[in-house]
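Human: I would love a firmer grasp of how sequence relates to backbone shape in proteins. Take your time, and here it is.
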Amino acid sequence: MKKKLISILSVVLIFAVCIAPTVSAATYASDYFVSFSSNIQSGGSGKVLVSIKATGKVGVNEIGAEKIVLEESKDGNTWRKVETFTSDEYPEMMKYGVRSIGSSVTYNGTSGCYYRATLTFYAGTDGVGETRTGYAPSAKVS
């Protein structure tokens, strides 16, 4: 009886180990992105720099951020939207004919305040692609 119980537990454990990575990989898989990230830096005198970095898979020829929503906080707890950047208004947010981007947009903020951003990244091939949401963690601007 003890051997049978150990055999059953072994099969269950093997099954769990084999299934878990498959579910995780399917959840995060992308046909277009290799990576994407964003960061906020102080440019001095209240300037806020929101950086955009993204790399697409081989074959991608359109990549960048479609939209950036910038929020401001005086205390780091209560946030309000202060600016929305779109790639139509800021063409440096998107690149065409390449599969990677390293760019930034600038906002004239207030020294001593905190800023964070939510980005909608896009990667595609000839108008067909996908979007992913990314976040720039909060940073205090001098």
In short: The chain has two domains: 1-29, 33-140.
